[in-house]
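Data card: per-record layout.
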Amino acid sequence: MRVGAFLILFALLLAAAPREPWSAELRAQVATARSLIARGSLDIAFDGPNEHTDVRDGRRYARLPPGLAIALVPIELAARGLDHLTGTIRSAPLLESATSAGLVALACVVLLTALRRAAVRPSIALTATAALALSTSLCAAGRIPDGTALATLLLTCAVLAARGPGVRSAFAVGAASGGLVLIEPALFPAGLVLALVIALRRREPVRLLAGLLPLLVGAALVLIHRAHIGYFPDPPGDLTEGLYGLTISTGKSLLLYSPPLVLGVWALPWFWRARRTDAAVTFAVAAAVLLSVAQLHRWHGDPSWGPRRLTPLVPLLLEPIALWLEASLPPLRRQALAALGVLAVVGALIEGLGAAFAPAAYPHVLAVVREQTGAGGWFPDLDDAHFIPQFSPILGQAWLLDHFLRNDRNLAADAPWKLLQQNTPRLDKELLALHLDWWALGWPRLPAAVLLGVLSALATAGAWLTVRRLRMLR
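The structure for this 474-residue chain is written out next.
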């Protein structure tokens, strides 16, 4: 069942991969990976401006920690070999997305395994796993290789390993936490929480050292990297703004982009009553991640679809929902499963909107409106769009997609912010610049058709394996 689920999710996520999944942040990481391959140096010699790079001693460096760039090195090497064989295909973006799709599928399988070990019935475990991959913000992480997928897998494995006894489990927690810090240093407090959990559960110095040492090594590497490139983070932002934006805002709320988590309103209190030890660890890690991410200057992680910095928490928050469904009485279970199905459909539609165009497309339209109208007086920064319902990216993507499909250039006629800003400028150029962000549209037809056929075969094989396993379990 696990192999089948992995194949299905991997095929679906990769089939929906974008054409060019490169934000300025990701371009800097890719350039660093290529520089490591070509020259063994962090100097990316980047042409053109990039807000995520700095120049020191005549060399340009990416500000971001090196974890993702190092992870991209083997992918870039594979892409070079594939491009040399085909001669016509730029395979690097798709291979990078394939890696993210595989990591997300693996994180979902890890959750599926944990649910089955907790005696959750296969139907509920598979439903929760499918909802996690296709109806939450983890879906976007499976399409775009910005490190979110790897951070999600590492954090999920670290929390699950923290529940186990022995030095080996403690070292697994430390290794996963250390890798997590190399991808996203803001998640260091979550690693400290897990190290504290290890120390409190069994007061053995060896376990504490095994859990803490790899984490400290990861943090030290981040500090050495920052000292080498001469960059230190921006001062903290407004914690209240970040908390509001990541939890209940109309632009970046975790619940808005991961609707199945709404059932946590009922599941989390049950989780605390029924499995207090596991719940305490999950809640402590979630609080550490939320607080550390919310105080960042760029808490939103733009340009991105949804709150990508909180996405690593999604599997940990969905686990109690599946456990609660299993423990519920049959009448309540049926109602809750129906609700989960509805929320999953809503979430899939939201993720589908996010996959229609590049994440930066709608913010670019907002920037044009802000600059060419009087909106700048009351809309001083693009980040404020996340707190204005009429500027919600979900509404904006739906509006752009509707006009794109109808080839209607009169975007100003029904702009979602008309009640706030009447004098919307003409946006014909912005509509003409839009294109569906799907990799197959940028490939030659024959290779695209072959790859889509391979992905269909993988999904079919995964479905067959899953059905076969379900029949054996009856």
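Known properties of this structure: Residues 445-473 form the longest helix (29 residues). The chain has a mean pLDDT of 90.

See the next section for split statistics.
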